[in-house]
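testing teh design pipeline on a random one, pls ignore if ur not involved
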């Protein structure tokens, strides 16, 4: 997988991500954290380490061994520098960094207790989800896939073209990505069904972004990204999209934006 993400974008979205994740109940992970050794955690598409920095303090394990797995060496370098600058309060954390292709499941590490990812699932194909389920079953691992976009977008105040942009953005989300045809907004549901068929207990709480005047920069960047995606799908609507984008930018400071996300927590049955 070679989908590219800008480190500045990842940094910009992190506060909203962490606020949204407060709605996700992680208590079920406790039974999958070993009591007599470190808990081994694999973070897929780890980027600059946002998932690690959110989740480590919330896992009920005092010793944790993380593997940050990403295709982008620069993001892994940034993650490593960030880890080195962090003084961990509570758990004892060790971190390994592995560069690789997320589509190559045979390169994933073994002896993993928890598999996690953030803002990844809506980029992947049905085949990738099936591969992840097989890998998780082999490891008998718990799985936490956070912040998967589910297709819901709601601005206040509304604009007459919001619904059109949402439809075109969602169409773009379902387009071809590096691992084939992405499932986009339907990925969380497809994954929950696949894990349930594999015998997992699955929960999918909503973890929506709720953006307001504190998040003007993130709203501006999100609007720009959606404009670009919608334009790619509907280039014939270029002027309409430009006018929509300008109206949305003019509303910043007094507008709010809700972006639908789902967390997926899948817990294997244990005898």
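output:
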């Amino acid at each position: 997988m070679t989908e590219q993400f800008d480190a500045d974008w990842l940094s910009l979205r992190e506060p909203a991500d962490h606020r949204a994740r407060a709605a996700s109940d992680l208590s079920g992970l406790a039974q999958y954290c070993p009591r007599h050794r470190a808990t081994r955690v694999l973070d897929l598409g780890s980027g600059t380490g946002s998932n690690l920095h959110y989740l480590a303090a919330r896992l009920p394990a005092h010793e944790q061994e993380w593997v940050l797995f990403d295709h982008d060496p620069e993001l892994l370098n940034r993650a490593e520098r960030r880890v080195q600058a962090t003084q961990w309060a509570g758990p004892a954390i060790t971190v390994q960094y592995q560069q690789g292709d997320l589509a190559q499941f045979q390169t994933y590490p073994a002896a993993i207790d928890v598999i996690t990812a953030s803002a990844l699932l809506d980029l992947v194909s049905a085949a990738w989800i099936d591969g992840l389920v097989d890998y998780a079953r082999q490891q008998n691992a718990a799985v936490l896939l956070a912040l998967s976009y589910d297709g819901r977008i709601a601005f206040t105040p509304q604009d007459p073209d919001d619904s059109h942009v949402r439809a075109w953005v969602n169409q773009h989300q379902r387009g071809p990505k590096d691992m084939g045809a992405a499932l986009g907004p339907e990925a969380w549901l497809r994954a929950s069904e696949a894990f349930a068929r594999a015998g997992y207990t699955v929960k999918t709480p909503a973890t929506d972004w709720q953006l307001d005047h504190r998040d003007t920069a993130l709203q501006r960047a999100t609007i720009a990204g959606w404009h670009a995606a919608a334009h790619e799908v509907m280039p014939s609507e270029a002027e309409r999209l430009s006018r929509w984008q300008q109206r949305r930018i003019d509303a910043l400071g007094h507008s709010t934006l809700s972006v639908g996300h789902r967390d997926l927590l899948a817990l294997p049955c244990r005898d």
